[in-house]
Amino acid sequence: MSPVGSFNDTSKFKQYAKEEIKKAHIHLQQSLTNAQIQSDKKSEIKAIESLGHLYKTLKQKEFKEILDTDNTLNKINPSQEIKKLLGQGNNILKDLPRNRERVYTTINLINLQKSTERKCIASNFDKQAEELLDDAINIAQSLKDSRAESFALGEKGYMYECRQEYGSAIAFTEKARVAAETAKSPDSLYLWEWQIGRILKVQNQTEEAIKAYERAINTLEGSTRADILTANRDIQFDFRDSIEPIYRDLVAMKLSLESSVEASGKSIEPKDGKSNFSSILKTIDSLKLAELQNYFGDDCNFPAFNQSQNSVRIQV
Question: Angle at the Cα of 113 (from 253 to 152), degrees rounded to 5?
């Protein structure tokens, strides 16, 4: 019997991954074909979203070796396939009813166009994406759907963040945050609190950025955090992209602030009497809990851990 983590285990895992990717690819391709044959636009756009998400996943470097070593999968060019799907999706989009579903579909199609490295929209798609988002915002506002409006406004704020137009980025993100609060939608609220923090961070407003990050974590730490992590979302979601960086960036900023204060010879005297270092450890513990909840994929209950979290809630 080979030890856990052996070469044989790795090979078995890669083979399993290949087979699962093939099954998913065949199933989604067939779903798209069936929808096209039946002229079912709603099913067709959903198949395009799902297939595009698969191709985007395959662009990640950890999947490159799996693709390269398989005679079927190595014929797939994820970037070209995504480009083709986006063309099909955009043609269908304009024929869909102007409803909530169209707003979320617009955002998901735009997200497919983002690079896997910078997470920003390719420059050649930027103008079209902005027009699509403006239309999505108008639809959401006409429906008085604050949650959908929040996602569309936040996405436009992110577009400006990528362009480094930080004034407009903050303005649209703040509108998105207000819309999320109106909708009582924590699954979008934390995103825009975090986005505000990122924009402040890049402008070297570290202390204000930390407060924004802490507000985002407080939203996640609320009673709805498990729902945020495990819910079926209208917007396609990845834990590594959408939750984990909040904790890691906050820890990095606090360590940076601690270092700069120490270098200046000053001491940090928190109002609540707790050290900044203690706050950093608590943030790391919060990340561990979030990872566990995401891994198990259900409304997990970790009594000791939850009790600890409740006693160390960050105060802003």
Answer: 70
Both tokens assigned to 43: 């099913």
Q: Which whole-number Å values give the CA distances from 131 to 65, 98, 106, 120, 146, in the listed order?
A: 37, 15, 11, 16, 20
How many whole angstroms separate alpha carbon 137 and alpha carbon 145? 10
Query: How many Å apart are CA 183 and CA 194, to the nearest integer?
Result: 18
Q: What is the pTM of this model?
A: 0.79
Task: Give just the sign of the alpha carbon dihedral 79, 82, 84, 86.
Answer: negative
- pLDDT score at 27: 95
> CA 311, CA 316: separation in Å to the nearest integer?
15
Across 132-160, average pLDDT: 97
Long-range contact set of residues 307-315: C-beta below 8 Å, sequence gap at least 24? 309/221, 309/285, 312/282, 312/285, 313/218, 313/221, 314/214, 314/217, 314/218, 314/221, 314/279, 314/282, 314/283, 315/272
Residue 102 has pLDDT above 50, yes or no: yes
Average pLDDT, the chain: 80
Pairwise CA distance, residues 149 & 133, whole Å? 10
pLDDT digits (tens, 9 = 90+) for 17-32: 888 888 999 999 999 9
Nearest 10 degrees: CA dihedral of 210, 213, 217, 220? 170
- Assigned token pair, 211: 């407060």
- Residue 64 and residue 313: Cα distance in Å, rounded? 41
> What local confidence, expressed as pLDDT, does residue 257 receive?
78
The pLDDT tens digits of the residues spanning 43-80 come to 999 999 999 989 888 887 777 777 777 777 788 888 89
Alpha helices in the chain (DSSP H): 7-37, 41-58, 64-68, 78-93, 100-112, 126-143, 146-163, 166-182, 186-202, 206-221, 225-230, 239-242, 244-264, 276-296, 303-311
pLDDT in tens, 291-310: 665 555 544 444 333 433 33
Using CA of residue 23, residue 27, residue 32, residue 34, what is the dihedral sign? positive
